[in-house]
């Protein structure tokens, strides 16, 4: 968990992000653990990949991290730098 740094502009940089519901010690198999994600967003992106590739988990993790940072909470990552957000848009098909 880390305390986020707020900056001016429109950027979002996160290192070692994981979903807050996933413990740092979580094990998928006896040899492989949860792999944290790094995010560097300075403009909109198109996120694509195979089914069960972690796209939805990444989007949810980023959204929750931004909300947690803006309410003054610690964030489940090793480092986070962001500009204040006034809205979050996602499209998760169901």
Task: Spell out the blueprint of helices and strands.
Layout (H helix, E strand, L loop, with lengths): L4 E2 L5 E6 L19 E5 L13 H16 L8 E4 L12
Parallel strand pairs: 1-4
Antiparallel strand pairs: 2-3, 2-4
Describe the structure.
The protein is α+β, with helices and mostly antiparallel strands and 94 residues long. The chain has one domain. It contains one helix and four strands, in the order βββαβ. Strands 1-4-2-3 form a four-stranded mixed beta sheet, covered by helices on one side. It starts with a strand and ends in a 12-residue tail after the last strand. The model has no long low-confidence stretch (mean pLDDT 84).
Give me some keywords for this one.
94 residues; four-stranded mixed sheet; 1 helix
The separation of the N and C termini measures 30 Å
Low-confidence stretches: none
Number of H- or I-type helical stretches:
1
Number of strand elements: 4
The helix-and-strand class reads: alpha+beta
C-alpha-based Rg, rounded = 14 Å
Number of domains: 1
In short:
With 94 residues, the chain is α+β, with helices and mostly antiparallel strands. Helices cover 17% and strands 18% of the residues. Strands 1-4-2-3 form a four-stranded mixed β-sheet, with helices on one face.
């Amino acid at each position: 968990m880390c305390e986020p740094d707020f900056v001016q502009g429109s950027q979002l940089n996160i290192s070692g992000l994981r979903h807050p519901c996933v413990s740092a010690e979580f094990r998928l198999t006896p040899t492989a653990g949860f792999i944290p994600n790094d995010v560097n967003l300075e403009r909109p992106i198109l996120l694509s990949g195979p089914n069960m590739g972690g796209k939805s988990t990444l989007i949810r993790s980023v959204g929750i991290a931004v909300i947690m940072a803006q309410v003054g909470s610690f964030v489940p990552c090793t480092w986070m730098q962001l500009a204040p957000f006034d809205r979050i848009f996602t499209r998760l098909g169901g």
